[in-house]
Backbone:
């Protein structure tokens, strides 16, 4: 069993507060991704969990033990760095045994550990090479091997894939996921790439300006983001934010948004929001994939679909899908469409929006307005 | 078919161009040769005189083409020549210089490496200020430190000892070695140290196992720098030691100035060359690493 608890954690550098009271918990075997834009404090948080940065306030517990003042080597953790941080003068094998030698692990045990990890990561042929003789992906493997031989309680990853090229990054992402499935260690993984966070994590902590914005399962983060920052950060292309007004139609709730060239789009909601903000003003959040070319049969598959008309401004085919920028009121709205029947440039498209999946935000504090039924 | 007249015109132009180029080259090399001769001439005179016989030097003058040849001056300079009463040549002083330069070079280089390691990888409040203060020593002329050193050596009872000079050179050299090593270690990624800390290595183990193995390029620089600097140093040697305790630089001056009778130019020449050999050897052996170490970063 290895759990991690972070409570009311604060970090100050001189007068600047970079972490403003973080609460996090990872259960045994959990894979927690810390994600956020650069400067949000995620790497600082990881360094504090590792013991490389001191704690200004709050507490960090590993397996229930308070480790605020415990040296990194005594926290029973292993870390993989963005730069790999392999010792350049040592071979891959020496890199991996360095930690065990520091701890005085018997040689036979070291050999066994190397054997186990090398076969797990398939790096046996590389063991006698120095980091300078390895490719980026191989270095990455050795760096993970160095973390794995220790059999630590906690695995820490600091943007481990950022230095790899795009293709290798996707491959290694899968490798890391496989690895975690196999060894099942509690893991904290820092990344600025929301796709990495979505694909790898069992829970995601979204951070912004030193504060935890939301800590939840990936699907919840994606479909029910706690606020507009999380909604905008997760997902690419990002969620569309449309200023709208809450209203009633046919005895049910609806939102109204101005159309381009006059008139309003009235979009009935399949649920009732738990509260109405001041002046009934809301921000309607629509993910690009929840927009479709409207057809009569759409209603059969998506019962909550609502429609409006918008001119098509830009069309960007990517192969698997076609991204189109539409004009709604004075705003640009991005949608992801099936290449079959994709919007054409200049067309006035009838857009179907799956209202079951939209989010409503309160413009005054940018938080999500929950559904009354949920 | 090319028009012959047309071709001839081009050939003539090409010939003129080739001639101009050749003349230019000759000019450049002539110029360089002249300056090389001017530069090497004193060395030639000293080398030549060390192999001439003294009577011939006195007869034909110090600067003259050698007409005699003998090895005699070298053993005399090394072991027999009389300097201020003692007739043992300069070999004692040569050993003194070695006994002073080798430990002082090693100690100051290692301390510099250690300082650089602390100042780049274990920063603390005020460490940058400390570093600035240390590098001020680079700009401090040795003369300023003469009186304080006289005081320190007196109190430590190290006046007129090689150990005293070792102490001086270690301290005086520290600002250079610290500057070199700190600036080199800055380019070693901090992540290496962090990884090692998580791996359970402490301050010393990180230094021995990770930093030092990365250090040869910069250590070669500091060793060459310190060795030549300390070997060639004259001021402290002549002020704080005398007679058989003097390093070779001080002894050479004594040898060249303290003679009652006719000057022994042959012996002087040989002695100067003996004194100049070690730094030359060091530079010949390590010169290319010196330039490489100064220009190359720590991790390729």
Residues:
């Amino acid at each position: 069993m290895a759990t991690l608890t972070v409570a009311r954690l604060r970090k100050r550098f001189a007068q600047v507060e970079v972490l403003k009271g973080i609460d996090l918990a990872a259960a045994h075997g959990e894979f927690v991704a810390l994600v956020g834009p650069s400067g949000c404090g995620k790497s600082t948080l990881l360094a504090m969990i590792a013991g490389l940065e001191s704690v200004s306030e709050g507490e960090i517990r590993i397996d229930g033990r308070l480790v605020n003042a415990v040296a990194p080597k005594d926290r029973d953790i292993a870390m993989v760095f963005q730069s790999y941080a392999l010792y350049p003068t040592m071979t891959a094998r020496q890199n991996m045994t360095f930690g065990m030698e520091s701890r005085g692990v018997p040689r036979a045990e070291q050999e066994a550990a190397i054997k186990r990890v090398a076969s797990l990561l398939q790096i046996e042929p590389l063991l006698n090479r120095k980091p300078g003789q390895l490719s980026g992906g191989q270095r990455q493997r050795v760096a993970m091997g160095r973390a794995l031989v220790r059999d630590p309680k906690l695995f820490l990853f600091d943007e481990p894939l950022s230095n790899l090229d795009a293709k290798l990054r996707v491959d290694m992402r899968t490798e890391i996921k496989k690895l975690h499935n196999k060894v099942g260690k509690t893991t904290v993984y820092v990344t600025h790439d929301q796709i990495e966070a979505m694909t790898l994590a069992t829970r995601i902590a979204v951070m912004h300006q030193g504060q935890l914005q939301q800590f939840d399962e990936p699907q919840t983060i994606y479909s029910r983001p706690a606020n507009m920052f999380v909604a905008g950060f997760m997902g690419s292309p990002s969620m569309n934010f449309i200023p709208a007004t809450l209203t009633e139609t046919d005895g049910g709730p609806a939102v109204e948004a101005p159309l381009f060239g006059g008139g309003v789009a009235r979009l009935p909601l399949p649920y009732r929001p738990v509260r109405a903000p001041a002046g009934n003003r809301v921000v309607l959040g629509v993910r690009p994939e929840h927009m479709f070319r409207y057809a009569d049969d759409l209603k059969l598959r998506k019962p909550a679909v609502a429609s409006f008309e918008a001119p098509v401004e830009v069309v960007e085919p990517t192969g698997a899908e076609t991204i189109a920028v539409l004009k709604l009121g004075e705003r640009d709205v991005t949608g992801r469409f099936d290449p079959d029947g994709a919007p054409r440039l200049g067309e006035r498209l009838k857009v179907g929006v799956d209202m079951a999946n939209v989010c409503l935000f309160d413009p005054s504090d940018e938080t999500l307005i929950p559904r009354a039924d949920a | 078919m090319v028009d012959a007249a047309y071709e001839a015109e081009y050939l003539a132009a090409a010939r003129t161009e080739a001639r101009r180029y050749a003349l230019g080259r000759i000019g450049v090399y002539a110029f360089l040769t002249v300056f090389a001769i001017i530069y090497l001439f004193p060395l030639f005179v000293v080398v030549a005189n060390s192999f001439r016989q003294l009577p011939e030097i006195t007869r034909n003058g110090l600067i003259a083409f050698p007409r005699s040849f003998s090895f005699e001056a070298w053993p005399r300079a090394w072991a027999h020549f009389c300097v201020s009463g003692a007739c043992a040549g300069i070999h004692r002083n040569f050993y003194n210089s070695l006994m002073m330069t080798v430990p002082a070079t090693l100690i100051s280089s290692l301390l510099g490496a250690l300082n650089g390691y602390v100042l780049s990888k274990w920063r603390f409040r005020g460490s940058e200020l400390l570093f600035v203060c240390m590098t001020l020593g680079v700009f401090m002329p040795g003369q300023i430190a003469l009186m304080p050193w006289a005081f320190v050596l007196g109190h430590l009872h190290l006046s007129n000892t090689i150990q005293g000079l070792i102490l001086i050179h270690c301290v005086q050299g520290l600002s250079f070695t610290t500057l070199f090593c700190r600036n080199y270690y800055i380019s070693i990624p901090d992540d290496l140290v962090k990884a090692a800390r998580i791996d359970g290595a402490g301050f010393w183990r990180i230094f021995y196992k990770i930093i030092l193995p990365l250090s040869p390029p910069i250590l070669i620089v500091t060793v060459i720098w310190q060795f030549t600097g300390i070997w060639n140093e004259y001021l402290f040697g002549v002020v704080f030691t005398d007679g058989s305790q003097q390093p070779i630089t001080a002894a050479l001056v004594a040898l060249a100035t303290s003679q009652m009778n006719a000057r022994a130019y042959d012996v002087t020449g040989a002695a100067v060359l003996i004194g100049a050999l070690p730094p030359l050897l060091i530079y010949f052996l390590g010169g290319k690493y010196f330039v490489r170490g100064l220009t190359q970063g720590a991790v390729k």
